[in-house]
## 1
Amino acid sequence: MSATPRYSIIGAGNGGRAMAAHLALMGFSVMLYNRTPEHVAALKARGGLDLESYEGGPRGFAELTAVTSDMQLAVDHADVLMVVVPSSAHADVARTMAPHLRNGQIIVLHPGRTCGAIEVQKILCDSSCPADVTIAEAGTFIYASRLEGPAQARIFRIKEALPLAALPATRTTHVLDVLRSAYPQFIDGINVLHTGLDNMGAVFHPALTLLNAGRIESTGGDFEFYIDGVTPSVARVLEVIDRERVTVASSLGIRAQTAQEWLKMAYDATGTDLNEAIHNQPGYYGIKAPATLNHRYLFEDIPMSLVPIAALGQRYGVSTAGIDAIIRLACIIHRTDYWRRGRTLEKLGIAQLSVSELTRYVNEGVNAYERS
């Protein structure tokens, strides 16, 4: 690995563009990959993109090393591959990367949602990838960001502290050391069960979207999602989902952060309850609701966040009635079976593992798949 790491950003949505621009403005060599060439044609023509930001945040024209739809080119360029796509695409990205990876590279999922690193490791194993790479995942995405145009992005806020863990956890320190020059905000997330069960997207996104379904469809999302969309009653539902998530984590011996604790850590936002803490987070102001219910807050966060949390609850004896209700509502609205599409323990290769075996796998890297 070079002294100054070279980055390839996999995914050119609002998050990927914000990350690519910020890294480039910090002076790193950055390649941006998107599988659909026409989606990045304007970026390729300009050789970069304009970044706007909050007061005091990064801004300016960010020149990129290259913009490509060739995965081999993107992998060849990188010491660190930052995967910034919906977690429902992690498996496909892993399969596409697998033939091109080389020893020593780092793959970071932004974020992993729940069990993302475990899924990617399973895919690389199933693809007979010979390279010794390190897979890591962030607990959530470091930016609150949106697209502003075909070659423009905006950052609303950068989180102040964000847990990250590698699989196995013995490699986390190495990943943090490599990323520190760009992202000192990353801190040791203990292991990927901790980062996966401290998944705040699972708490905030699906239920908030479904409980505002009528308003989203009637206004096209023309309201402030976290400000207008979170009322005391909605916040109480979020608190139930949060409590179930924390209890599932406890069954695995993990002390998960509550949503309020996370808001304090990431944004220094506090309140007497979750409703008040959300409204005291300045970065949430100005963020509009999804324009449609065909949105990653449902088609990503339900199968890749809530399904594995509920599956872990079922496996280790925890009731997740609130989470189950949200999954069921999403299945009805989208006319699909998210249990079948989601990250079940069988798909992840960990269905037969005891708590101690699963813990050993994420901490030490003992091969779980020999048991499944």
Note: The two ends are 34 Å apart (CA to CA).
## 2
Amino acid sequence: MVKVAVIGAGNGGQALAAYLAFRGLDVALYNRGYKRIAPIIQNGKIRMEGYVQGEVKISFATTDIAETVKGRKLIMVVVPAFAHREIAEKLSPHLEDGQIILLNPGRTGGAMEFKQTLKRHNVTKDVVVAEAQTFIFASRMSNPGVVKIFRIKNAVPISALPATRNQELKKVMEEVMPEFEVVPNVIYTSFNNIGAVFHPAVLLLNAARIETTAGKFEFYLEGISPSVARVLEAIDKERCKVMAAFGVEPMTAKDWLNYAYDVIGKDLYEAIHNNAGYQGILAPPSIVNRYILEDVPMSLVPISSFGKLLGIETPTIDAVIQIANVMMERNFWIEGRTVDSLGLSNATLDQIIRFVEEGEI
């Protein structure tokens, strides 16, 4: 049996830990703060509601990351992408040969940043770093130790960096979670980043409603009107242009909804509103939320940055980033992942492709 460590005990981490335990796997759960997982530390139990129901027992929960990953073949990192670097730093002294680290999800450039951080900390252990294109569930934590899974996606693409390690990844993930589908390389996972399309613009265009109602409306089904959907389609077209520059056929957001949820529509607006998996998902209670703090610097900024490197304009994406800068009084251009921060500012297109395929520039 594959032993699994889940790093992060938020909405996604608790749901994933519970679901893997439900499938009979040996699961350890880590969170840096005690309060969120105190009940799980005490009784080892997580209750699932919604799409999957029942109470399960995990092996243990802890705030000690070394204890969590010791002897664990698979390390599932389920934290916002802006925390990937911090997690890589914390894991660096405790990694073991043969372990697989999967970012759930990597957003854009997650595996690149994670590997670079391990390298900077002189990690010599033979570990596989991989990323998922999106998170496997739509889920929310109602209380510590209680999670609601609204829907499980049909399939989620994953890939290792470099792609030469994909067979190792596939062998383990087929045993752990067959919904994960190994794709050729991290171009497919990083640039088919649908969170970049669905999250920041919807939140910003509903900012007044979120601030006046504390998010008491359905985020996708009420927050995405026909005009908002047209903005999402423009973002999606720009994302697809950047991805296509790598010689890879992108998956449009509308096609992704069919791939992940079996829904169709004549346009993106209709497809979103045909998705029963989005029913009941409320908006965040504040605009100070990962849909901005994660998806702008770790999704939109790197897509724009790679676009500039490749000579592709991304005006709608850039506009969303700038509006987020003004609303949040921050500079995500500086905070976010860029080709410079990923060590690729002087790389050619062929060198980047060789990097994701073979691990060398």
Note: The two ends are 36 Å apart (CA to CA).
